[in-house]
Amino acid sequence: MMEQVPTSVLSTEQCHLGEGPTYDVTTDTAWWFDIREGKLFEAQLGSGSVRSHALGRMASALGRIDAARQLIVAEDGLYIRTLADGAMTLFLPLEADNPATRSNDCRVHQSGTFWIGTMGKKAEPKAGAIYALHRGKISTLFPGISIPNSICFSPDGATGYFTDTPRAVLYAVPLNPATGLPRGEPEVLLRHSGIGGLDGSVCDADGSIWNACWGASRVDVYSPHGERLRSLGVPAKQSSCPAFVGPDLSRLLVTSAWQDMDAAARAADPQAGCTFLLEASARGRAEPDVKLA
């Protein structure tokens, strides 16, 4: 049964492809991207103020380095962004020699290792991969990925999750908690069926997996064993990625998109691309900082 929990609109700016939300608990600031439009959004939750920053390139995710810097994952590499002036400096190239691909879903492991997904700009089959930035070097974890999504980690750091959305399968892979790197092969945790597809995910403090179901106007909550526990309604059809926000990490920020909608579809989905806050009645976890070395 679909739950309709108290929901508000954090940002009325309608993202072409809203993605990559994260939250800095030290400053009460939420961040997310419009991948297609090359924008980074910054929301001060206490005041409700929202700003957008033009990046000059497609980007999809960030990790906090420290109080002054972020690591931005963009279509051609990883950039260090200084918060004071927004200046971006290339840290490492990633698929920079392949203009057909871009970054997609990413998340920082508790160890500081950053899992990074790439895909074809036209979702070409098997054009992307999932990488790990660990100790300043990038390695390939899973090649031949079409649309990487649902990258997240169990609270103890011993399990990683991901999906290749067209396969409709959520995978679980055992990890070394100290490094965030695999120590075994991915296994099928659950198979998605019905309306929509597996998009971005985040784990809560109890280990449940909160997945934005693209095309189904909802966020589904799964146990670590793959059982669906809850489904929360989202007032936009293409919900794309969740993140826990707020000083007590009890609210769920959910991005959305109007990508691939014609005029009639957008008229029928008037809040497509908006960014929402759901009263989730759950406890999230603070996002770890990314380690560059």
From TrEMBL:
Molecular functions (GO terms): calcium ion binding; gluconolactonase activity
Natural source organism: Bradyrhizobium stylosanthis
Keywords annotated in UniProt: Metal-binding, Zinc
Residues involved in a divalent metal cation binding: E19, N149, D199
UniProt-recorded name of the protein: Sugar lactone lactonase YvrE
Coiled coil: none
TM spans (from-to): none
Active site: D199 (proton donor/acceptor)
Listed Gene3D superfamilies: TolB, C-terminal domain (2.120.10.30)
Family: Belongs to the SMP-30/CGR1 family.
InterPro entries referenced in this protein's UniProt entry, alphabetically: 6-blade_b-propeller_TolB-like (IPR011042), SGL (IPR013658), SMP-30 (IPR005511)
Binding site for substrate: R102, N104
Cofactors (names): Zn(2+)
Lineage of source species: Bacteria, Pseudomonadati, Pseudomonadota, Alphaproteobacteria, Hyphomicrobiales
Domain SMP-30/Gluconolactonase/LRE-like region: residue ranges: 17-257
UniProt remark on cofactor binding: Binds 1 divalent metal cation per subunit.
One annotated GO biological process: L-ascorbic acid biosynthetic process
